[in-house]
Amino acid sequence: MRFFICCLLSAWAVLCAAQPLPSWNEGAAKSGIVEFVKAVTTKGGKDYVPPAERVATFDNDGTLWAEQPMYFQFIFMLDQVKAAAPRHPEWKDNAAFQALVKQDHEALAKLGQKPLLELMGQGNSGMTVGEYDKTIRDWLAKARHPKFKRPYTDLTYQPMKELLAYLRANGFKTYIVSGGSVEFMRPWAEKAYGIPPEQVIGSQQEVKLEMKDDKPVLTRGPNFVFIDDGPGKPVGIYRSIGRRPIAAFGNSDGDLQMLQVTAAGEGRRLALLVHHDDAEREFAYDRQSHIGRLDKAWDEAKAKNWIVVSMKSDWKKIFSFEK
Amino acid sequence: MRFFICCLLSAWAVLCAAQPLPSWNEGAAKSGIVEFVKAVTTKGGKDYVPPAERVATFDNDGTLWAEQPMYFQFIFMLDQVKAAAPRHPEWKDNAAFQALVKQDHEALAKLGQKPLLELMGQGNSGMTVGEYDKTIRDWLAKARHPKFKRPYTDLTYQPMKELLAYLRANGFKTYIVSGGSVEFMRPWAEKAYGIPPEQVIGSQQEVKLEMKDDKPVLTRGPNFVFIDDGPGKPVGIYRSIGRRPIAAFGNSDGDLQMLQVTAAGEGRRLALLVHHDDAEREFAYDRQSHIGRLDKAWDEAKAKNWIVVSMKSDWKKIFSFEK
């Protein structure tokens, strides 16, 4: 049986190598990716990288799935914070709470992630990690995106899922490195992206071990102990992986440092930005956006010849549910 | 070629399954391990666990390699702190520094890990992560253990290395979960144990991203942001793996909570303690030891029927260099 599976896997790998990235149009982005992968996997070539060092890191929001009109985790948070509000009368004077209740996206964006994450931390503080996991799964099962009227987990990008599979078929280990919480991604990342829980790196809320009914349980505290965004991303990668990625993928200024550190390594590297320029099939936003702003990273990409993917022209389809 | 390697791997897996754990004497410890592995890998059996959930976590100091007369990382630290002392005149009033210089092991043990880790943090603060890695590799290359007169990396336990390989051959993912720093283990854990850097969980010192000569580099700060010991171990596992282990291996009270959380999961579980009872071939210590004390965890093991390995009677050899 093991033998048979090996043969099947080999055949599948050959097939993948023959027709990579079917949802990508021919062009500089696709050929840049394919040339990079060929270069680092060709034994004896000057750019060859052993499989163990083929680390690829992907931002999640805006890179692997959509992030408009607001990070999906924040939409979840709104529901969760509303549910917790009766237990927190002190929130009436909290600017982030007020902005959330009013759905004032502009005010929320101006506040930045930190006060929102703090509010969310308080909203689920005291839950065991199992209880918290259940609130996320329950929410994902019933919540629908305001524009697409579909579960949020349908809004993953088909071309990026093909890219993840293509890299893995070529010996890469693929990681998510997101400003969002690990807990919000782990329940569905394996099914959606083929990325197991242990390869999801994200912001971290404090948890502590307690005994309940003579059993040890992990319980959530209110504070975030690590924010995995901007300059935090290379730190999260160093802590969790301990190797410098040779390929990194993002879409906003929050990914700039991850891409810079990746590109600054010795040998051939791939740095890629997804540009949201398709208002019809998804959303169009960049330098002026409050969510997923792409400004400094775009300038850097131009200066350093990183790949910039146009969702409009490089991708045949964005979501798998498109006809 | 890929096909050929698959066949070789299959043949090797069959061979491993036929003669597992050659350095282990027949007895309750070995049979307990083998029965557990058979139970969780037998498809259709009531205890079957899918490969993705076969997570096994190992303490390092005293479980995978020796830890006497003092944690090897602390011996490294002594050298490093001595080298940094001229830059830190304030240390003359520091109790941990005084104990280190005097090699007062009793005082060091009484102080506990925290002040020592703080001192070490100050000793390497300001280094880039690359510079720090080099100091560790250089030290490991030249330092020798006071009793065995060998490099510290020779003092890994042969039976435990066989156990790691046996578990991996049966679809387990093996992790180190240590109170020591990740940086001190990552340079050699893959060669010694077959455990890659991304599967090493340990205490974490702060690092921050800085620009030097127009290049982004990670630089070390003085503070530990996470101590992966005692109740910290289940927290480290939750953060880094996001799955509860089904098997956990330790040797001291610092591993108690990791073993408790592992054993408290649903389904068949394996919790194992290594008991240092061989003064001739290694060291003998338990309830009264300042380093690697085994007291509460031993009581728990007896109460809960965990496996307790006698190094003296369960292991044919301890180190690979023994005749």
- Overall mean pLDDT score of chain A? 92
The oligomeric state of the chains shown is homodimer
Largest sheet of chain A: 7 strands, mixed
Largest interface: A-B, 39 and 39 residues
How many helices of chain A? Answer: 13
Q: Roughly how much helix do the residues of chain A carry, as a percent range?
A: 40-55%
> Low-confidence parts of chain A, pLDDT < 50 over ≥5 residues?
none
From the alpha carbons, calculate the radius of gyration of chain A and give it in angstroms.
20 Å
Summarize the structure in words.
- The structure is a homodimer.
- Chain A is an alpha/beta fold.
- Chain A is built from 13 helices and 7 strands.
- The longest helix of chain A has 17 residues.
- The first copy, chain A, is globular and about 60 Å long.
- Chain A starts with a helix and ends in a 9-residue tail after the last helix.
- Chains A and B meet through helix 1, helix 9, strand 3, strand 4 and helix 10 of A and helix 1, helix 9, strand 3, strand 4 and helix 10 of B.
